[in-house]
Amino acid sequence: MAEGSRPRSVTRADVARYAGVSTAVVSYVLNDGPKAVAPLTKERVLDAVRVLGYRPNLAARALSKGQADMLGLLVNDNRNPFFAELCHALDQASADRARQLLIVNSDRLQVSTSEQIRDLVSRQIGGLLIASVLTAGEQALVEHVGIPTVMIGQFGEVDGLAGVSVDFAAGARLGVEHLIGHGYTDIAFIGSAARSDARERGWHEALTDARLPHGVLTHTTFSYQGGYEAGRRLIDSGRLPRAVLAASDQIAVGLLTALREGGARVPEDVAIVSFDGTTAVDYVWPRVTTVVQPLEQMAETAIRAVLEPDSVPRYVEFATHLRVRESCGCTAS
Amino acid sequence: MAEGSRPRSVTRADVARYAGVSTAVVSYVLNDGPKAVAPLTKERVLDAVRVLGYRPNLAARALSKGQADMLGLLVNDNRNPFFAELCHALDQASADRARQLLIVNSDRLQVSTSEQIRDLVSRQIGGLLIASVLTAGEQALVEHVGIPTVMIGQFGEVDGLAGVSVDFAAGARLGVEHLIGHGYTDIAFIGSAARSDARERGWHEALTDARLPHGVLTHTTFSYQGGYEAGRRLIDSGRLPRAVLAASDQIAVGLLTALREGGARVPEDVAIVSFDGTTAVDYVWPRVTTVVQPLEQMAETAIRAVLEPDSVPRYVEFATHLRVRESCGCTAS
């Protein structure tokens, strides 16, 4: 097909033409002034806006509640069990509010994340949820899309944007302090080098506070394979730490596999505490003690933050809790 | 907001009004007759169709290629690792064709699958992918939505609908025959009772052909928990089978957990072959031998079947292959 046959954006002129008014009148209606517009004319303009699906940036916030019943979710990779569970929880919370959820992976090889965001916004979505780490440029773009946007699971508040997250640093401290409680003094961390990870900071602070030496720090990717490779490196170094805080459940499962291959027992030789609280780590052996992110509450709050921004604080940070299993050395229920 | 403020469907009358023509002329243009329409008028009507996003059922097929760059995917539950990997492969294949993928879970508690399908279709999608088992009523609905639709991973061809799947029965035979090759004669099956599962048939036929007695048949849900519960029932029955074909990787992982708790060793006491070929079963212990569905090829073919229906046979069934690990009793690489 020729390029020209693709849908073009609806403009203010289209709305004016459809409603049979001037573009200025369209502006008066959408901006609620400066000039007054007769009720019937106003209704005709709003009808045109709805029929055409016109969404001006400035008026988007005001219109979104009535106009759009679809929300967009940008997620890094839906295969990661944590994000899979997050997507599902957000889908359920959206369904509770009669909204459809458009899930988009941001790891598309062919398309930049900025293009993905622009594309989502052009689809008349009523709100945007982002569970993916953004670059500064992408952040700037998101700040200007003109529809309610909520960042999910970021390390702290992102300037100018609403957010729902957990206290990653406190969660990591919880995990490390549990390992310290077992009497371990050589506690390593396996996490991501992608950007300053608050879990790494929490690990570091907990060791400092307990006057313990800082254990080995290993950076890897967030995947089974990443956890496996980090584990192989620890094995190959010939100097295994007594305990490890893993930054994600997937990393912990990959690590378990590498330690098993290397002949190290968990928890007898190496104890593990993980981060996320997905279902999968209850079905490996030993089952993994993990810092749980309260996904349902986070999802419910994120959807509320998008649909009723005024009913939720601009940034909501949930506490985590520990789900105790056997990988840390506990004899769990 | 009042109900009336939600967007209403665009009608032929809206197109006529916007283009400044009669509704009859709109029909002539969209149906290419019976009366001729002047080129400039035709262009004005098509412009109105595009701007308004009008999509009449009859003209949908013809318009979809040029008009829509979004595909809809109905999936049962995106948390199941197999469906998570399928979603991701379909997303990548969509990105290759510059299409966005709208992923929708069909296990929403608040909304029926029929409503989900109607909702997807109303969103100007250019094609519909369904990776979820449908009732007869839902199938009838899908047959009449008027946009290219492809069923993914069904047990055989669905009347009147295009499909991409694997030969489940042959795959199950492959798994059972591998277990028979190990010398096991007491081979159970754990699968779903939801509807006639071709894997169950393949298991049954392979045992019949080998003149072996039919082992225990256990029905459960497709989840970790389902596999775990089926395993507990086998343990509690006091009579463990020598080998099991599990209908999904998730079931196999849950089964592993139950057997471990029950003191049964895998593969020494109970050998397992699974179905799906997800990444996760390479990160449990023992690693699970599994019948692999060629996900990338299936995804690529499904997207092609939706976008260029004439370039792909109406029903494409891929062969599976075995990924040999340790759970079956092999000493694998």
Can you characterise this structure?
The structure is a homodimer of 333-residue chains. Chain A is an alpha/beta fold. Chain A folds into 3 domains: 52 residues, lambda repressor-like DNA-binding domains (434 Repressor (Amino-terminal Domain), Orthogonal Bundle); 125 residues, Response regulator (Rossmann fold), CATH 3.40.50.2300; 126 residues, Response regulator (Rossmann fold, 3-Layer(aba) Sandwich). In chain A, the strands form 2 sheets. In chain A, strands 2-1-3-4-5-11 form a 6-stranded parallel beta sheet, with helices on both faces. In chain A, strands 7-6-8-9-10-12 form a 6-stranded mixed beta sheet. In chain A, helix 8 crosses helix 9. The radius of gyration of chain A is 24 Å and the shape is elongated. The N terminus of chain A is likely disordered.
Largest sheet of chain A: 6 strands, parallel
Gyration radius over CA of chain A: 24 Å
Q: What is CATH's topology name of the largest domain in chain A? A: Rossmann fold
What would you give as the CATH superfamily of the largest domain in chain A?
Answer: Response regulator
